Amino acid sequence: MIEMSRRRLLGMIGTVAGSTAMYNAMTAMGHAQPSSYSGPIQLDGAPQGTKILILGAGLAGMTAALEMRAAGYEVEVLEFREKAGGRCWTLRSGDTYTELGGATQNVDFADGNYINPGPWRLPHNHYAVIDYCRRLNVPLEPFVQTNYNAYVHRGDAFGGAPQRMKHILTDYRGHVSELLAKAVDQGKLDGMVTQEDREVLIESLRSFGVLNDKNAYVKSLQTSDYRGYDKQAGGGVGAAPIPSDPLDPSEVLQSRLWTMLATHETMNHHAPMFQPIGGMDGIAKGFEREVGDLITYNAKVVSLQQDDSGVTVTWEDTANGGATRTTTADYCVCTIPFSILGQIDHNLSSSLANVIWGMPYNGSTKVGLEFKRRFWEQDEDIYGGITYTDQAITQISYPSTGYLSDGPAVLLGGYTWRGADTFKFNAMQPAERIEWALRMGEKIHPQYREEFKAGVAVSWHKVPWVLGCSGIWEDRERDYEDAVAIDNRVVCAGEHLSYLPAWQEGAILSSLDAISRLHDKIING
Amino acid sequence: MKSRFLSVLAMAGLGTAPVFAQDDSGTEQFISPVSDEAMFEGGGGYTSTDGEELYNTFCAGCHMPAGEGASGAGEYPPLSGNPRLEFAAYPITIIVNGQGGMPGLGHLLSDEQVLEVTSYIQSDLGNDYAPDGTLQMVADTRPVEEGEVLAEHEVEEENVDPDREDGGGNETGVVRHRIPNSNFPILLAAEIPADATLVYLSGTVPQVVNPDAAEGSPERYGDTTAQTVSTLASIEQKLASIGLDMADVVKMQVYLVSPEGADAMDFAGFMEGYVRFFGTETQPELPTRSVFEVAGLANPSWLVEIEVVAVRP
Fold this sequence. Notes:
heterodimer, A: alpha/beta, FAD/NAD(P)-binding domain, four-stranded mixed sheet, disordered N terminus, B: alpha+beta, CATH 3.30.1330.40, three-stranded antiparallel sheet, 9 helices
């Protein structure tokens, strides 16, 4: 027997199963905090007149600005864009967006309709971003991730016909439970299940899989109560419910539609999820209300230099003909994405420079489609939630707001994440991306063509201020410490320097950690 | 390719409305550079082996349809008129393994696809380089997977190269490549890791070896050999003063003046002094090196000046 330390065990769990498993194991062992966020940070005792320059007014940068000013620092923020928020961004009616290559989209949505091209949902267990929403008075509403009446769809399953998730979920669980219950009942698992557990296990499978007293998953009022009826229970004459037929077990298995059930169960998608009312940039605006006076917009950083006495940043004032300007400070919190920072002239140490230059950025495409009416609600009884498909669009997410209203509504008609399809969408012009989203979506909703009104398509490799969606670690184990370390007078922060890449929570937690360490260094040397 | 419609360029700036063309039957036909059947077939991967089509449906997203690149907070470098595309090895390496913010794309493309798109960008987009890539070049560029059985030529290169030394006495991470089949005491190449600290020494000149000799006389500094020895000894001292030694030297530039009355520099005399410091039993390391004959140095008596670059261990 090899003796194994607890630390090594956790390391192995982490290596084999990923950080989530390690986190869960640590929690079970009673040694993990629920989150590295433990409430608002208190940074006290900033030396008078110490200036912090923050590069980037996304969530990481504005978190740093808010907390460091509160600590007593003199704070200045430089931002490339004309507004705050970075990837926390909403496109709504009347907005104009020009991507790299020059294609301009004029958002032709009805008033109040919007699409979040970047982050779009907040897990309830992302404690930091939720707490900032609380502190910044950003009103939230539920974001419906899981909708049993939405579809799961594959072109090669059930003749390409979309299936209601409730049918696949219930039937898959029922058929699997039946097999397992029968195996247990026939003693085939006796080597693995004690006699004591056998009875309880069968009882639990009958409950879990909705099996009858013969351990069978069959057409019945009982199973229809989970998967839905042919005719639902009503009132008055002829109100008795009529049960529905479960799908064939083999067909359910072979359809592979069960692959689309898992996302809902992951911690980052557990109900309830939230969204800011009116668009994700509600969070950006909440921060901007607090720290907007510190931000210089339209500032394209071209050089970041530090020496023993301070930090000097050279930038182009793009609102004023690109005039070159210089800003100095005692310290710098740099939240510029590494895809950009790697191209900026800097004298950061070689260990940090290597990570900056070695971090590729992934792509992602989102397509917002506005339809003249809420046919998914009116015709198909789908209120929010997500339909998953094996087509390149991967999903259709119905709006979690404005239910039952008349008039146009916007759904997320495509959301690609890395991979070849993302590059294909990226190589298209916006109108082509929208057309492909319609072509794929109409296989699920035939109303698409008839009801289509307007669309917006954002491909993140073409977003001028970041050139990608989120940072990818080539070797996080090897590089992480170098990347997050304070480099003399500069510390980097952002979603790319977290274990929650592409989540706003990662950006905020990274920033809070970076400024806490920087503050400690300033105070204690 | 089954069909090719209008160029995607024609669509730029048309706002959010999808673009349609009417065909004879009156049904709407979408304008796409790639046929419907080809775009998303094959489980989402790239199936075409046409360099131009691969470029248009992949690379053009960032490097733009005419290879003109793009500029935002950062840049996508232009491929059009890019002299780095003269030799295929460079684009192949970047396509397969990525660079900076660009992800490695080797896992999305076959060797043939990488080669075809490389040949396309070398010879199109306003470039006129002769495509010189090979499938073998692409295969060799791919990262070695753990547990992968190496081909014979790779084993030779990577593992049993007798002319390659990893590290050195001082653990600098420097890889010193010896000249194959040669005992000439300089390196073919020195490979410096990106995180190495390089130290550049100013040019060092000879020391007076005979203080009794008259100023300006050849005896005062000695012949080329003597001047080489005193110069290298001086370099050794300077290095020691900053915590380095001769074994840390990776690069040397030598300037020799033709001695009075001679037709050319005394290269043999220089070598006689040089081999006392490099490739010896006690100091076996060698640097890369260049030797130049120059018309003169700052002092008319000097025949030798040497610059070195060292890597700090």
